[in-house]
From TrEMBL:
PANTHER family: ABC TRANSPORTER SUBSTRATE-BINDING PROTEIN (PTHR30290:SF83), PERIPLASMIC BINDING COMPONENT OF ABC TRANSPORTER (PTHR30290)
Keywords associated with the record: Signal
Organism: Plantactinospora soyae
Signal peptide (residue range): 1-20
Official protein name in the record: Peptide/nickel transport system substrate-binding protein/oligopeptide transport system substrate-binding protein
Alphabetical list of Pfam families matching this protein: SBP_bac_5
Ranges in coiled-coil conformation: none
Keyword Transcription in annotation: no
């Protein structure tokens, strides 16, 4: 999605000197509608929308694709690429698309564009990370491989079907979605980027993506790919002038990929980067002096936690997991490492969504080192603990602080182990390579308690990397999904969260906020509740 920058270092220096704004009290420079914005990212794991379930990939997808719905200030969905989304029973949904949308190769966006993409996303053997989100659509189970002999995926037979029976084309711009049961919040679910369309040019044959399509993605969004994805270097996009929706105020974006968050920030301070989405923890104290009023904060739906590989014997007991949680002083880490830029989490659902309650974690999230050590020894906890994390995300300081607390409070050895990239960590976890406890974070895909509980903790959930499974929990979440309205759904979701408090499959640590910075070249820089830069608002000074 990117190619090598075409300007020389000297030319870039000249551009920066010309476009930098001086605070001379004069009139602000007019916006440069063709200006290029540079945004720091870690290397995405994937860019196919249905397979990209981490934040770096989501930021690029936000440039290349337009969702069916987005969310207003009250977190209510409103139509974007959709003209209307209607249902009389919360089970049969009719989606009518707006006319005029085209893919970046000129193909019109049609009902088939969505149906074909969603069938590919849901087909189990394709291994899409976002397949879980299609699980409510009729026919999903028949698209999944089964393993009746328990011999592993290599022995699994082909699924019964390759296409969802719940998707039916009505006309070129209309299709219906039949769910396996009512889901009152389904319109909000359709705001997640896994439900993006794909063009006919994506397919080598029916249901089979062309080799290399992910490297030069073709979307329906306000920006189109410029060149190809230059892994571990950059991804470039440019404005798509045929886009019928809201027009960007810039000419394009260079998503500059960094292996360390500190390098991202150093480039921002030096004027070689325009937006750093996350200020490194070690620079939170100096950022106000470094950036002045260009150091910004905004609400974020993020939830940071430590996950247990519950399939490993040493972490199989809830008593062990609870004791480790009680040995962590969240408030101290928030104060000393994060300079109070985040808040301690003692619940499993972000306060950003309706139905969230504080302190649902109960005793397990109350710092009590003496009780923690006694319980840990009684439960036979391991003598050595490991916490794995992605080295490109600026996590070392708080991981080391957490390990020090566990060493002091439980009397164990604890080490932090960094994987170079987040994608590498996820790959190891998915393959069940022993990594000890591991750091994860979650920002909502759509504003609902279900979006935290279902993907993270349901059996087979898309981001349940730790193997947690509880049939009662699954049942309550499913009953919440089937509830006739949000109030009734919340009651079920809250009961499900109480099970997590008893079993502690993960340790809640912090709820976040966006702590970001930008250069003097850009203005109207906003990060939303999803942690993404609003690419339709950002401007470059002329």
């Amino acid at each position: 999605m990117r190619r090598r920058v075409t300007w020389s270092a000297m030319a870039l220096a000249v551009v920066l000197a010309v476009t930098a704004c001086s605070d001379d009290g004069g009139e602000p420079s007019p916006a440069d509608g063709n200006g290029i914005v540079r945004i720091g990212l870690v290397e995405p794991q994937h860019l196919i929308p249905s397979n990209a379930t981490e934040s770096a990939g989501a930021q690029v997808i936000a440039a290349l694709f337009t969702p069916l719905v987005d969310f207003d200030g009250e977190k209510k969905p409103f139509e974007v690429a959709a003209e209307s989304i209607e249902s009389s029973d919360n089970k049969l949904w009719t989606v009518k698309l707006k006319g005029g949308y085209t893919f970046h190769n000129g193909e019109p966006v049609t009902a088939d564009s969505y149906i074909n993409a969603w069938n590919h996303a849901a087909y189990g053997p394709n291994g899409n990370g976002g397949a879980y989100f299609f699980g409510q659509i009729d026919g999903y189970d028949d698209l999944q491989s089964t393993d009746p002999d328990g011999d592993g995926p290599q022995k699994a037979p082909e699924p019964k079907a390759k296409k969802l029976t719940g998707l039916q084309k009505v006309d070129e711009l209309t299709f219906t979605i039949t769910l396996s049961g009512p889901f009152a919040e389904f319109e909000s679910v359709l705001g997640y980027h896994v439900f993006s369309p794909l063009p006919a040019a994506a397919w080598a044959s029916d249901g089979v993506l062309k080799d290399g399509f992910e490297e030069a993605l073709i979307g329906n969004g306000p920006f189109k790919m410029k060149g190809t994805w230059q892994h571990d270097s950059r991804i470039e996009v440019e404005r798509y002038d045929a886009h019928p929706g809201t027009k960007p105020k810039i000419g394009g974006v260079v998503f500059q990929i960094y292996q360390a968050l500190t390098a991202d920030y150093a480039d921002l301070v030096a004027g070689n980067n325009d937006v750093t989405k996350t200020i490194p923890t070690e620079h939170l104290a100096s950022a106000p002096g470094d950036l002045g009023d260009r150091f910004k904060k905004s609400p974020l739906s993020s939830f940071q936690f430590l996950a247990f590989p519950t399939f490993q014997q040493e972490f199989a007991k809830p008593e062990v997991r609870k004791a480790i949680s009680m040995a962590i002083d969240r408030d101290e880490i928030v104060k000393t490492i994060f300079k109070d830029s985040q808040t301690s989490a003692r619940a499993f659902v972000s306060p950003a969504v309706a139905g969230a309650r504080p302190d649902t974690c109960g005793e397990a999230c109350v710092f009590d080192p003496a009780k923690a050590k006694a319980a840990y020894q009684a439960a036979g906890g391991p003598n050595r603990l490991q916490i794995s994390y992605n080295g490109d995300g600026g996590h070392r300081d708080w991981i080391d602080a957490t390990c020090n607390q566990l060493t002091n409070n439980l009397g164990v050895e604890c080490v932090g182990t960094a994987e170079t990239r987040f994608a590498d960590l996820l790959t190891k976890v998915e393959e069940k390579t022993p990594v000890g406890m591991f750091r994860l974070g979650w920002s909502m895909d759509y504003p609902s308690m279900q979006n935290y509980l279902g993907p993270l903790y349901s059996t087979g959930g898309s981001s349940n990397y730790y193997g947690y499974s509880n049939p009662e929990f699954d049942r309550l979440v499913e009953e919440g999904v089937a509830a006739p309205n949000q109030d009734e759904a919340i009651k079920k979701y809250q009961q499900a969260e109480e099970i997590l408090a008893r079993e502690i499959p993960v340790i809640p640590l912090r709820f976040g906020q966006n702590n970001f910075g930008h250069s003097t070249r850009v203005g109207n820089v906003e990060l939303d509740l999803f942690g993404q830069v609003d690419l339709l608002k950002i401007e470059v000074s002329g």
